[in-house]
Amino acid sequence: xxxxxxxxLPRLLLVLxxxxxxxxxxxxxxxxxxxxxxxxxxCARIDRENYSSGGEIVASxxxxxxxxxxxxxxxxxDRDCWWFIRRSGDRFQLQVLExxxxxxxxxxxxxxxxxxxxxxxxxxxxxxxxxxFQLTSLDGFSGMDASKVIxxxxxxDPAVVRVEAQLVALSEEDWANPQAAIAQRGVSPTxxxxxxxxxxxxSPYVLIPxxxxxxxxxxxxxxxxxxxxxxxxxxxxxxxxxx
Length: 243
What we know:
single chain, alpha+beta, five-stranded antiparallel sheet, four-stranded antiparallel sheet, 35% strand
């Protein structure tokens, strides 16, 4: 009896405590959306959940929407978030992941588990996404009247080595004459190549004024891709989609 009480029982309680601690850690891991130590592992898990294949990660970057003097809560506030672009042929996929404790990754939310962009050399080889954005105020106190975006330009044409884009918010009236809106409030940022077929705007974000103080309008990008000799190879005019 003494052998059980002083020798076996303490060791049994120790083993049970370790098992209980492991179960607690496991449930904590599940409650955090099962983070993994690499973005590629998270993307592979998302593929299994969606029964799809997004390809390899070709570009990534941090998301920093902080602005001095203006505190607007968003999905990116007080979080270490990164965007990732994966490519498989002419198909690109955007994932937004959050980094925890400096080494674990998880999807930011279910809405950002994968947005796909299918380009085509024949129909639309180039395009730009504004899916990483946040609403803001131009002067900090008069209400929302602009969007902070990380413009990510995608191109499936291998001949393209340089890209340009005019970013603008169009109202319904602007669609008939978008060049006037571009001249008035359009933004033409410099794009830097971030990966295979991927270019990104200046860090940390690009500020695009709304179409009017009461309406954000439609954020669009008029895109152009050039070859090594400076010749226009491809372009995209979003107004053509409405014809």
